[in-house]
Amino acid sequence: MVAQGLPPASPPRGEQEIFPAWIRERKDFQVFFPRFSDIVITDDEILRQGVPKDPGDRNIVELQCLARWIMKIPSMATSLDLSQATEIAKLARYQALKPREYVFHKGDKGDACYLVFSGEVHVLIDDQKVATVGKNSAFGDIALQIENATRGADVQAGTGANVPVNTSVSTAPANNASTATSTPTQLPSAPAIGVEVLKIMAEDYHKTLARCQTRRRKHLINWLHTEVLLFRDCVESKLHYFELVSLDVPLKQGEILYRQGDSIGAFYVVRSGKVRLEVDIQYEHKHRWPVGKHEWKEQVHAAKSRVPFALEERAGFFGFEMFVEGQQTRAYTVIADSPTVELVGLNRVDCFSPYFSFTPRAIERILEKHDKCRELATKQIHQKLKDFRRFTSAQKKAFNTTVEKEAPVSVKAKFNHSKETPQFQFPSLQPAKWEAPNDVVRALQLACQ
């Protein structure tokens, strides 16, 4: 009997070994077995349990955790997205090598890439160590880029790795597992492990990418036809051509796709996220001074800034300057405005290819969008300049009200409410408005040089 009001007792060690980590962390499992509700399974524990399994035995939680781990490896993250990494995790095979055991030799056929899960490997050339590859890194990935590439060096497992190994089992009877304490029994010592790796075959890698690309094509064609207003009038053959020549452009928040004034490159459709359109604006400060009785010199100080005027979200399009007659450069700056942005781009040459052309109705929509953006940008520029002139005018008025029409420099008592005389105080100097002919001001300027 369990006393009411007391926290659930931690489950015996034997039960933790019976139930795998992925099921212990499920909420529906913890409802029926509340003694596991206070156990938090970390990603490292899930990886440690899932990586050594055969690819077909890994459950969905282990695959997702393994995919996130693969995306942390720089060489994998540059060529895969999370869905592709999940497919790769279904095919990666575990290998544990003994200390100083060779992974491959120089001249061997490069048919696989290796991800270091724990430990390290040494790269050897002529039996001399030239590099060390540690945990959460990849080696041999040239096999994924060049077909039938040969290994350029020997790779040898390190001297040892901190790999946790279960050295005890519970001897408590199964029917009394919840109450009896487990008696550890020492197992034979496990062989030393120099490095643990996940092996990704090049053939499996390319087949996986091909399957993902095929799914992407089907989804892209359907998405363009149903959600993007610009392509609703296109026939299926043109959509297929667009999909074949289109480019996927991923962006992170704050990244600039192109700037105002750049050469026109591609036409873009927003697949996910949102981008911000900004236009350049120039503020001018004018300063003049006399150089004679009736002569002045003037200098203009210009400061440039960008002003946002529109957002393009999912299924929106931009980069349509190529369709505007006489437009040779980008009219706006485009910046990613969400944590992740996915764009689909179509090069300028492909936009006017004989195999693909926008319908007349689509061209009208593009020009309407251009006119709308130009109107919004112009309105925003005028408003910002109006605010700037108002601010400058207010500054001048504020300065004019504080100065007095006296000598160029006036002496004012520092403490107005004090009975002290100015002779015993430091003078407080302030400028005053003073009018004089230009030739006098010019003479004073020359005298001060």
UniProtKB/TrEMBL annotation:
One annotated GO molecular function: cAMP-dependent protein kinase inhibitor activity
CDD domains in the record: CAP_ED
Family matches, as PROSITE patterns: CNMP_BINDING_3 (PS50042)
Domain Cyclic nucleotide-binding residue range list: 76-157, 230-348
InterPro entries tied to this protein: cAMP-dep_PK_reg_su-like, cNMP-bd_dom, cNMP-bd_dom_sf, RmlC-like_jellyroll
GO cellular component: cAMP-dependent protein kinase complex; cytosol
Protein name in the entry: Cyclic nucleotide-binding domain-containing protein
Organism annotation: Globisporangium ultimum (strain ATCC 200006 / CBS 805.95 / DAOM BR144) (Pythium ultimum)
